[in-house]
Amino acid sequence: MELHGALNDFKRSQGDPQRFPGERRSTTGLFSGLDERLVHVSRDGSVRDYSYPLSGLTGIERSRFGLERDGDVHWFDSDGTDQRYVGPTAVVETTHTVGESTCVQYDLTIGRLHLTHFALEEGAGAEDVSLHACLGFAPEGRAGRIGQLWHGNAVEIHHDTEHDFLAASAELSVTGQVPERFAELLATEPADFPRSPTDDRYEEARLSPIVLGEVELTESSPDATIVTLLSDGGDRADALERVRTAAAEYADREAILEAGREQARDKLPDPDHDIEGGVADLRALALLRAPTGARMAGPEFDPFYRYSGGYGYTWFRDDAEISRFLLDADRRLGLGLEDWHAKSARFYAETQLSDGTWPHRVWPSNGDLAPGWAHGRVEEGDSEEYQADQTASVAAYLAASLRHVDPTDERVRETLAAALDGLNDSLAADGLPVRVQNAWENMTGRFAHTAATFLEAYAAIARAPVDDALAARALENARSVYESLDDLWLPERGIYAMRTADGDVDDRIDGSTLALVSAHREYDALEDVDDERLDRVVSHVETTLDELYRNPEGPVEGLARFEGDPWRVRDQGAAKIWTVTTAWGANAAITLSELLAAHGRHEEAQAFEERGRTLLALVSPGGALRRSGGYLPEQVFDDGTADSATPLGWPHAIRLATASALDSADSSPLADTETPPQSHE
How many CB atoms lie within 10 A of CB 542? Predict the structure, then answer.
């Protein structure tokens, strides 16, 4: 996001009770892009690239489309528009109403191409009608020192390495648009976009990132396609040929729709049997996925780090958790995600540090180190600014991958062995992880969540097809963590503490500690979880779900992140509801139900299953926390307004895996009979 756009949004959003001024939000509108380019289509039809984390290219920063009739341009706005995905594809359909006319817009991103097709429909006689398209590019994230090259029916916008191209399926006439000048940037009101024509400084139009194009529509052909292509240099003639060919090839609606169907068949899994909302969850996860197989946490809405530390990066915690949940769902549903699993394992192997751990975050496009505040293992010297749970989450996935995907993968086995050393280096003599940063990245201490991820990772490694010595080391440490968790038990509250720090106990209830459930299930596959421990886990989950649950007066309900969470609440006065913790709560309840049933505690198991189903419904299709396109935003205000990264990948993966577990249980021949004892094989 360049500064011009941030300042304009700041001016428009000041005083809004739910908006954080200066952000580039995606809480409304839909995304297209299942390859290396991600393009957001707002409800008014404007398009904007969120592609940088996936491709290293910035592309379109702002845009606007409209129709000119009888000399007047009617720029599309969000009033009177409808927007949806076309079936199971990533084609976005936006219907505009302009007076008595209807114009339907179709957007599809293929590779580094983005196609925007407009078709005039009812009441839209095309006499003396033209399409206007104003697009502002930001090659290499730049707003200045940009040049335009006009190649007849195509335009090239460039800085240094990045060259972006624009073409149309019909005759295109273009002019440049001068960006906001200093006085306009400092003015109280935001500048209009598109702005008024340039003055007599004719050269400014050629030294601008903004292009204003016009395409005449005729009665015989009342439609047109605008095509943009992002490029990192190379052969100019080849790029021009590609963008012009695409404009001709996708000149009509059916060509766009068929390309979208073909892309979906190629890029989205085809499950053996459908599960409600499964396509929406998989599409959301595919949108965030780079060709490397790594996913960014969510579309970048805060590139200036004004209100957060940014979201357009790969966190190994989020990504590995997504990988594990997808592996669980794939095993149940037959999603055909073999390529996804293999690429994830390869990416983790390639990005592992020499000490066996993983850094705070990296760029999904290439695995290179990204800006962060928890790179303690990369910096010289001792530092507690390290999130050890990220290494544990990756190790647990790699162990599962070795068991279920490819037991012969020697590189994964070597990576797992190094990861065990990395985990051991963060395990104190008392059997709990040392002081590190937490999952929410806002404090340091010795956390129950970190301990849970260590227990699960150690147990998973011990169960994996690794050599006996490695498995024995992992089992020994799993036992140590299992026993030491008693040190965090708070009998007066019936929960495990969030953390200890400098000898003090932080007894706040923390949603991330729900990870204790899956950790104990993994351990139970090796050695029985004893009755006293199971009682404590039951008490902890019951209390956590009770205390974090919020049902404000409004359209939403769900789980907060942790007790007293103050982040991004604005004037609300209470912690916001998070889709991650709500989905996590559903998964923990269902997983605990399975664990209890395996221990013969069927009445309790049934109660937790019902509770899990209730929470899962909130993040399922039609649920209170779902948004258009089936998206799950990270957070919602009490009035239902979505906030922060949208869609967020993590809850989509949790939701899909949890729904698949219930689907499998419901369809099992044993679904209506007593659950047999669990095998520890």
Answer: 18
